[in-house]
Structures are given as structure tokens and as C-alpha cells.
Fold this protein.
Amino acid sequence: MGDWVLEGSDDGLHRVYLPREAPPVSPDDALPCALLDRAAVEFEEYFSGRRQNWTFPTRPLTGTEFQRRVWTLLSDIPFGATTTYGQLAVRLGSPGAARAVGGANGANPLPVVVPCHRVVATSSLGGYSGGLDVKTFLLALEGART
């Protein structure tokens, strides 16, 4: 699917850049970091089908209160499962906020770790900031029914 770039420090993973996103700093210029090495190993295990959850720490996510509430719910979606934007909106107590849930997904700084790819539209895959081919790949990797 291309290169995934991880950004973080000893306090946790800060950001995951999808293959089509350009990180602000070249990975070649990055300083060594044991936590990032560990996260990279876990990502390799995930992409090879040997990992379903993460053990490395993440830095607390910053965003609006609504975004943080959505991201918390995303973290509860099990590996290989999907839910819809509308179902998440209902769980948030805002049944008309499906589009806002989609917007929060698009602002997620830790895609895959906070699994926004597991959210689909009622009658389609919906969108994905990394591209629908990446979303399709991730869902297939997890054996999710779409």
C-alpha cells in the first residue's frame, strides 16, 4: 500500500501518516527512538496478519471535544468488525451527526491505531483520507465484512 510514516517520541506515538500523506520531516532526518522502533515492529506484524492490537503508548489526542468522543468510540470497534457513521452518531447521542462523525474520522491523527477505517456508510464504504483502496485493504486484512 506504500510507505506509512510514524511520528512520536518517548512519550508515545503522536501521528501516523498514511501512504499518500507527506510528513513534515523526512523519515531519514528523524532521530532514533525506541518507542518508534517498537511501533514499527507492531505495524509490520499487523500488516503481515500477526497482530490485532497495539501495546505501545500513544500521546493523548488533541482535538475538539466531539472529535475526542468519536475517537474514543472508534477505539472500541473490535478488530475485523465495522460500524456505520450513523450508528456512531447515535451512540454519541447525536443521531443527526453522521457527517460530523465522518469529519472527526478524517481528522484522526492515528489512523489504524484508532481504527477509523472500520467505519463505513450505510450503503458503501464511505470515505477514507488515505484513499478507498487503503481502506479496502485494511478491512480485507482484518477479515471485515463490508
Summary: The chain is about 35% helix and 10% strand. Strands lie at 5-9, 12-17, 83-84, 119-120. Residues 12 and 67 are 20 Å apart (CA to CA).
